[in-house]
Write a structure and sequence with these properties.
The complex is a heterodimer of chains A (296) and B (313). Chain A has 296 residues and is an all-alpha fold. Chain A is built from 12 helices and no strands. Classes of the chains: A mainly alpha (296), B mainly alpha (313).
């Protein structure tokens, strides 16, 4: 009897492994997604090894060498109006955007998954939770984040909090949708009849089966979060000088567009590449996790 | 249909009440003493107390909220802490610019989006399709404040074809149109990309439908199959995306107004947040959010009208 159960567990584990391998195979077949993965990996490497990769201290000013063009000696991406090395600021900016984006998405997922699980599982809570979600949805994109920053004040930490709250309603709706269909499945009924607690059913059995849309959402949301962080910093509501944040760099560079256009162009390319990468990987994952697609 | 409009109308009232409560309570809990902001640094404690009495800041929260709602319903949103100007007046002056920008961007987005989506779907898997879908993805990923800065750099600074910013001239004049081109492209690109993607996938789906195959089998000319049988049906989800994007564009005006130094509600809001001018923040956020939910409601209703298969009952 015990052996039979163990064999079953092994089969389930093997099946799961196969699903993961198939998903990875499908993502890797998508050329754009592969390009996206490479860009994300490069950003992660830049973020982790920023002090090693950067050639200068991102905040050190050198007014003698200000506004140097790209491919200048010692400063291949030039310098800004304070003589700070643009490459070093881009590298450290990669770290900031990744940390803020990751924090915002993680907090948003925690909030969204909790509300989605509770709303989907308990009918009594569903009404009130979905009304709160509807209310949060009635603010167009960045407006909700700006309202939160108006309360908390301008800083990068508050930007992460604001973007996470903005992510909660979308995540909650996605999770709730999955929970509503999963909780009617026979194995959930079986678990209930065996006396498993609601918390255990939600965390151990419903959540893992609702992960596919959550993973796609989180990937796409990283792009949105990075873009929003840059936008809010550009508006002066996020990173404050001299923080080497990409959006803030564009905002400062815009004043020198006539003499040093690279100060605007370079950080913009960095933002676009990273957001593009998360979008294409998200697209690739969505296609790969879609059960209607053929398994090759 | 009338029952749907009435029901959604009632829901809208509750939603607007919820939005106003959220916005009012956000400013209520925000740190900072409004009396000190109104009185300025030289105000004494007795001055501050007089201001608090005058503004009703000593009343309980719900009394203050009730008063705010009553005044807001009459178009009175109080006075700016900074400029002492009437908030309604300040918004009324700037709102036409914001609306002009949102409408012009939507026009740009619809034209570019539908044409790109159409070409992409009709030349499926060709280099045109690949170029169009890659540009659509880039359009979604591009920070619009950066795109705006680049357009200024090329068309205003280098080529000097178009003005750097502002939206002062009336839109029906040549100068007004010139001022509108760059901001409209900047704000419309993201929506154009989404409309293109939706148009493409929607057409590709409809092309596979049985009735399209039947039409072909009956010997209907290819042009008629595409323009009458395919496009007409493929446009239904596209119209929803267009509607939803109009709401999003209203939010997007905030950044574009800053890039092009346009005197609109978005710029007013950013300045108000930076100065912690709460009445101004409250009213501008309330205005944009209200427009957003009203536009979404109208889209929902239009959607049910054009697609009889949808039944919200």
């Amino acid at each position: 009897m015990t052996n039979a159960v163990l064999t079953d567990v092994k089969i389930v584990k093997k099946k799961k492994e196969k699903v993961y391998i198939n998903t990875i195979k499908r993502v890797l077949k998508n050329k754009l997604a592969v390009v996206g993965i490479i860009i994300i990996l490069l950003q992660v490497i830049m973020a982790v090894f920023a002090p090693v990769i950067a050639t200068h201290n991102p905040s050190t000013q050198n007014l003698v060498a200000s506004e140097l063009p790209v491919f200048s000696e010692g400063h291949w991406l030039g310098t800004d109006n304070y003589g700070r090395d643009v490459w070093s600021r881009i590298v450290h900016g990669a770290r900031i955007s990744l940390i803020v984006g990751f924090t915002a998405v993680t907090l948003g997922l925690i909030g969204g998954i909790t509300l989605g699980l509770l709303g989907g599982y308990y009918k009594k809570l569903d009404g009130i939770i979905m009304r709160i979600v509807d209310l949060l949805f009635s603010f167009p994109g960045i407006l909700l984040a700006m309202l939160i920053i108006a309360i908390l004040g301008t800083s990068l930490v508050n930007v992460a909090i604001a973007i996470s709250i903005w992510s909660i309603p979308s995540c909650a709706r996605i999770v709730r949708g999955s929970v509503l269909s999963i909780k009617e499945k026979e194995y959930i009924m079986a678990l209930k009849s065996l006396g498993a607690s609601d918390l255990r059913i939600m965390i151990r059995h419903i959540l893992p089966n609702a992960m596919a849309p959550i993973i796609v959402f989180a990937t796409m949301r990283m792009g949105t979060a990075i873009l929003s962080t840059a936008s809010l910093s550009y508006l002066g509501l996020g990173a404050q000088p001299p923080t080497p944040e990409w959006g803030a760099m564009i905002s400062q560079g815009q004043d020198y567009m006539w003499t040093s256009p690279h100060l605007t162009i370079v950080p913009g390319i960095a933002i676009m590449l990273v957001v593009f990468a998360f979008n294409v990987v998200g697209d690739g994952l969505r296609d790969a996790l879609d059960p209607n697609m053929d398994i090759q | 249909m009338i029952a749907l409009i009435v029901r959604r109308g009632i829901q809208l009232i509750f939603l607007l009440l919820g939005i106003s409560f959220l916005v009012f309570s956000s400013m209520y809990i925000a740190p900072g003493d409004p009396a000190a902001m109104v009185g300025g640094p030289t105000a004494t404690e007795s001055d501050l107390e007089a201001i608090r009495d005058n503004l009703g800041l000593n009343d309980p929260f719900l009394v203050q909220y009730g008063r705010y709602l009553k005044n807001a319903a009459q178009g009175d949103f109080g006075y700016s802490y900074q400029s002492k100007q009437s908030v309604s007046e300040a918004i009324a002056i700037r709102f036409p610019n914001t609306l002009k920008l949102a409408v012009a961007s939507m026009v740009v987005a619809i034209i570019i989006g539908i044409i790109a989506g159409l070409i992409s779907a009709l030349r499926h898997n060709s280099w045109l399709d690949f170029t169009s879908t890659t540009f659509a993805l880039a359009g979604i990923s591009i920070p619009n404040f950066w795109l705006g800065a680049l357009l200024i750099l090329v068309f205003a600074v280098n080529l000097q074809w178009l003005p750097v910013g502002g939206l002062s001239a009336p839109f029906y004049t040549i100068e007004g149109m010139k001022q509108m081109i760059l901001p409209a492209i900047t704000l419309g690109t993201g929506s154009a990309a989404m409309i293109a993607r939706m148009t493409r996938s929607s057409i590709l789906e409809v092309v596979k439908a049985d009735y399209v195959r039947t039409a072909r089998a009956k010997g209907v000319k290819e042009n008629k199959v595409i323009w009458i049988h395919t496009l007409k049906n493929a446009m239904i989800p596209v119209i929803t995306v267009i509607g939803l994007n109009f709401g999003a564009l209203l939010g997007g005006t905030i950044i574009t107004e800053k890039v092009f130094a346009i005197n609109g509600v978005g710029r007013l809001m950013i300045d108000a947040i930076a100065m912690r001018d709460f009445p101004m923040v409250q009213a501008s956020v309330l205005l944009v959010a209200t427009l957003f939910v009203v536009v979404n409601l109208v889209v929902d209703i239009i959607y049910t009208m054009i697609d009889p298969r949808i039944n919200y009952d």
